[in-house]
Amino acid sequence: MLQSTEVSPLIRLNTIGYLPDSPKRASVAGKFSRFAVVRVRDGKTVYEGEAAETITNADTDEQITIADFSALKTPGEYRLEIPDIGFSPPFRIGTDVYDFPFYTIMKGMYLWRCGTAVSGKHNGDTFAHEACHTEDAYLDYVGGGHVRRDATGGWHDAGDYNKYVVNAGVTVGVMLRAWEDFGTRLRRVRLDIPESGGKLPDYLAEIKWEIDWLLKMQAEDGSVYHKISTRQFGPFIPPEQEKEPRFYAGWSTAATADFVAMTAGFARAVRPYDASTAKRCLQAARKSWEFLQRHPEDHKSDTRGLITGGYQTDDPDDRLWAVAELWETTGDPALLKNLEERIRAQGARIDHDFDWANVRNLGMITYLLSRRGGKDSALVNQVKTNLIATAERIVQTARSHGYARPLGDAYYWGCNGSVARQAVVLHAAYRVTKKPEYLNAMLDALNHLFGRNFYGRSFVTGLGYQPPMRPHDRRSGGDKVDAPWPGYLVGGSHPGARNWHDVQDDYRTNEIAINWNAALIYALAAFVQAK
Ligand code: 9MR
Ligand code: 9MR
Ligand code: ZN
User: Fold this and answer.
1) Nearest ligand by distance to the CA of 312
2) Cβ atoms 467, 502 nearer than 8 A
3) pLDDT tens by residue, the chain, 531 residues
4) Minimal-distance CA residue to ligand 1 atom 5
5) Fewest CB atoms less than 10 Å from the CB: which of 149, 158, 261, 338?
């Protein structure tokens, strides 16, 4: 066949690789009739196939022809070879293909830690910073004068160093969902973090780093401050060099409700390992839940003077999620009644996609999958029907898209995170029905993010073929290492399918954020092998 092994940008597939027994499809933006799979080690052809269907892909304005090599199941490292087009990037087939990505992306969470020194190695480079933001934070904007009250710790939000409770909500919520769904395997995963070898599994220890900060965001009366931030977004310098004062922003009911959900959910997860932390978290959750009962109004944070991330959002979905987690942890029948009223009032909806502004799905799934008795079975059936309908819609959306993107042609700020987060609804539907289509659509999400996309590139720093090199990340832009900090999913193309720019200034498409990483953690957790 061809002489050189030059990679053709027209062949787009998962450049991390495929599980042996899963579907394996590449999207090719060019005409061909036959293709081969060749082994990297010796160039030997191990599989030959014919072009499958051609899809007119509207969002990228391309004719995409599919090369299907699902029948190849032998572990190894391969490339596609297509006459007159060229070679694909190399990729693997193996049961463990997602183990290192999972490790790296979880390590990304660790490297996001604030208030402490961090250090990690990747590809021969060391990524490190000294303890940062050790003076968090001042009460000036919440009526406490220029007085410091401890709010150190937690993860930086994104490419900026601020800390926002609402975005922590969907992040911790999705990570705890992964723990509930895949905990038996996640328990065994080693992350090589400072807590490794301690009483908590590494996965929960990493989440605890965020929870310990969140507990400091609770005020005396049970309300929860909305964020900790500088007055304005700061420059691209390492975090320990950022000496601008950081302040509390006023409480919000959305942040308070998310706090309830996170601490109640974490209490449940951590209870078998650490009863005193579980107790502390549950007490905190109850206190904030009681505050919310005294404050039924949707109260937004007063963030005047702190012109950083907003994360302002209506609270009915947050309150639903809060009571769902508190009920699941305690079994209190009054909470179940409250939850079911909210579910009815919100139409028992399962939303097609969701992010920080809408956490209803998390509460709905907790309710549906709960093994606790006393639920209204008619309501349970309604939720189940809606869940399956939404999962079917996601499967159809992926099927009719040239790159099998489970979010179809929706492109918005952070849409790569939403592509990965589709896995949460899909897996809930899988638990209820056991239909393999739902697992396959979860894999479609991973395939897309790791290279089966218009760019033929990985969207995760440090992983896969031609990953992002200039993310909007203050650590990456502010240190002396050429490579960006590893293990971060960038936000993704928008407003259209062809608007991603791997340029540091392009924070609209090339920033990184904890909520996007958490979604990818969930999708990967479903498939980690964890030997
Ligand atoms: O760098 C900021 C990024 O982390 C935020 O996500 C983004 C949107 O809120 O804002 C970025 O800051 C930009 C600011 O909004 C406008 N001036 C340029 C800043 C980029 O350094
Ligand atoms: O993810 C957020 C996105 O949904 C919003 O449209 C956008 C503009 O408000 O803000 C995004 O969140 C950013 C936050 O405001 C500041 N930290 C970085 C976040 C990711 O870009
Ligand atoms: Zn910090």
Assistant:
1) 2
2) no
3) 444 678 999 999 999 999 999 999 999 999 999 999 999 999 999 999 999 999 999 999 999 999 999 999 999 999 999 999 999 999 999 999 999 999 999 999 999 999 999 999 999 999 999 999 999 999 999 999 999 999 999 999 999 999 999 999 999 999 999 999 999 999 999 999 999 999 999 999 999 999 999 999 999 999 999 999 999 999 999 999 999 999 999 999 999 999 999 999 999 999 999 999 999 999 999 999 999 999 999 999 999 999 999 999 999 999 999 999 999 999 999 999 999 999 999 999 999 999 999 999 999 999 999 999 999 999 999 999 999 999 999 999 999 999 999 999 999 999 999 999 999 999 999 999 999 999 999 999 999 999 999 999 999 999 999 999 999 999 999 999 999 999 999 999 999 999 999 999 999 999 999 999 999 999 999 999 976
4) 507
5) 149
Residue count (the chain): 531
Q: Is 158's C-beta closer than 6 angstroms to any atom of ligand 1?
A: yes
Give the Å distance between the CA of 237 and the centre of ligand 2. 20
Q: Which residues are catalytic?
A: 160, 472, 502, 511
Kindly give the distance from the C-alpha atom of residue 303 to the centroid of ligand 2, in angstroms, as a whole number: 15
Convert 54-80 to b/e letters by CB count within 10 Å (16 or more is b).
Answer: ebebebbebebbebbbeebeeebebbb
- The residue with tokens 């090199």 is 469
Domain residue ranges in the chain: 11-93, 99-123+132-525
Does residue 258 line the site of ligand 1, with CB under 6 A? no
In Å, what is the CA distance from 88 to each residue of 166, 233, 311, 480?
Answer: 41, 40, 40, 32
Ion ligand 3 neighbours, Cβ < 5 Å: 114, 132-133, 239
Ligand nearest to the CA of 137: 3
Q: Atom 9 in ligand 1: which residue has the minimum CA distance? A: 309
Note the ligand closest to the C-alpha atom of 154: 3
CA of 507 to the centre of ligand 1 (A): 6
The domain 11-93 is placed in CATH, from the list 3.40.50.40, 3.10.20.90, 3.30.190.20, 2.60.40.10, at 2.60.40.10
Residues 6+ apart with CB under 8 A from 400: 55, 408
Identify the H or E element spanning 58: none
- The highest-level CATH class for domain 99-123+132-525 is mainly alpha
- Relative to beta strand 118-122, strand 91-93 is unpaired
Q: Exposed, middle or buried, 273 (CB in 10 Å: 0-12/13-18/19+)?
A: middle
99-123+132-525 has the same fold as 11-93: no
Task: Kindly give the distance from the C-alpha atom of residue 311 to the centroid of ligand 2, in angstroms, as a whole number.
Answer: 7
What's the CA dihedral at 158, 160, 164, 167 to 10 degrees? -20
